[in-house]
Amino acid sequence: MSDFDGLRALVTGGASGIGRATAGLLAGRGARVAVLDLDPSAVDEPLYAFRADVTDDVLVRTAVEAAADALGGVDILVNNAGIGAQGTVEDNDDAEWHRVLDVNVLGIVRTTRAALPHLRVSDHAAVVNTCSIAATAGLPQRALYSASKGAVLSLTLAMAADHIREGIRVNCVNPGTVDTPWVGRLLDSAPDPAAERAALRARQPTGRLVTAAEVAAAIAYLAGPHSGATTGTSLAVDGGMQGLRLRPA
Ligand code: NAD
């Protein structure tokens, strides 16, 4: 397929997991793709790689400009870089709240701010934010992470309203539990990772984890030419978790 021919995409957190799958899928469908990541050393050609921390406004601006130069502009911005946090409001101190909100929420603000001048002059401008079912599910032991993704959801709606008249669409995906290196790290920290993985699978309505490729396909739909009338929405990619009102433990 080459439905992204001529389109230029920037993917944050594109060196691993969902972002990596998204960058690869968009490139495979004809887009020119740049990845912005803390550690882009594993990103291969034909993708362009830029090292930046989304918590650093100067680094973000510099990397977005370099990516726009390399790509010849930016039509698609995938704000995917994010980190996790576990616990109740008693478990994370202020510094941890600032750290996670800085990456998950302000990271999107910084990257979008830097990319907007390029998106405004695109004939096909789309932003897709990676949110989470945590934004609305009321997950136990995820107070900080849920609050950060709740902010991503409302930010998506506000950005969609602010930029609709400029021809810029803004949507988000809400993944459930996705089989990425992030989840792998969490499982590996359990006393019996294999048993933990089996239990996690069993808790999914489908009996399996969501794949990064499945989330990438949803991101590509929202970023691509077939969703021109779609803005200000969230698309669940969660194996039925949200629609069936189930809870991952
Ligand atoms: P991952 O850890 O496999 O990949 C995240 C990537 O983001 C890494 O390459 C990392 O280097 C990069 N990154 C992290 N902090 C950064 C920073 N400050 N600046 C630049 N890059 C940074 O994780 P993943 O599972 O692919 O998660 C990607 C996104 O999907 C996150 O926003 C996460 O909240 C969301 N999500 C994941 C799941 C899941 O189950 N894996 C579920 C719902 C939502």
Describe this structure in words.
It is a single chain. The chain is globular and about 50 Å long. The protein is an alpha/beta fold and 249 residues long. The chain has helices at 17-28, 57-71, 94-120, 134-137, 143-163, 181-188, 193-203, 212-223; strands spanning 8-12, 32-37, 48-51, 76-79, 125-130, 168-175, 178-179, 210-211, 234-237. It is 44% helix and 16% strand. The strands form two sheets. It has a seven-stranded parallel sheet with strand order 3-2-1-4-5-6-9, sandwiched between helices.
In short:
With 249 residues, the chain is of the alpha/beta class. 44% of the residues lie in helices and 16% in strands. The strands form two sheets. A seven-stranded parallel β-sheet has the order 3-2-1-4-5-6-9, sandwiched between helices. The protein has a two-stranded parallel sheet with strand order 7-8.
